[in-house]
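Bench notes, afternoon.
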Amino acid sequence: MTTTTTPGTTGTPSTDANRSGSPSQSQMQQQARADAERHRQDAEEQARRTIDREAAMALDETRKALRFIAEGKTADAMAAIERAAGTIDVLVARNPDTALLPVDASAEIIDTAPDDLGSIRDISAAASGAMLANDYPLTRLLLGMLISEIRVRTFHLPIGAYPAALREAARLLDRNQTDEARGMLQAAIGSIVVIDRIIPLPLVMARLAINTAESLRDQDRDAARRFLSLARTELDRAVELGYSESDDEYRELGKSVSDLEKQLRGNENTSSAFAGIKQKFENFMKRLTGGERTSRVQRKSDSGDQSNASQPQSATAAAAQHA
């Protein structure tokens, strides 16, 4: 999957480099990249703070057991399974109403979408046509060109089913049924649940444009209006890229930005208007990015190789839905 840290910047208003202190296009591009990376780091740090260290240790012990089985060290494998099972039993007792415990997290910037709305619509139409024609490989390829987001991914251990799998693996290993024990451990690891939280980059860019417009309102109102126009464009990109559950909210935000542009053109006092739209934007962004997509990982067996022991592996999700 293609990744980049340059969120939609082609539409950035061009200003003279030193005109009234207004930022140039290159300066805005640099700021956009820095803002997106800051959001990514903050999101990853917040997600990693939720990790249950004991659950992560239980997963690590399971991977060690697989590695020991591959090396023919049955006693060591059994000891690792027992340590994992003991830890999970404690977690189940401590969290009787919890089905999933986070064991790892990451955040990445994925920005493959075009900057202009026309190209986005063309790709979207082509993807719809490919879907209707049951050309799923082409559909996946085209949909992969319509991503502009910070993806926060958290891996969760299903503590309800995990203990039974460990106990069965131990029973099989005790009977010297190593292949069956390996398969049971692989199935346990394969039950990891992935939860994605999406932060649309067009909204990050729109917020930056609004903040920049506010900083310019007193010294260069024309430049401020251009940045508000960019904010409206980024809101439109978010809609066209599918980052919306209600287009009405986008339209309301877009109308608020347009009204603010008119106030700037009429030399009105815009202090309260900027404060209002920023608060409205923050509330909307919190609601939009609060949704999660959940996938139960379905993947081939873990080889038990040590290089794979530290991180849950990526996998193609069997299904995805809004949690």
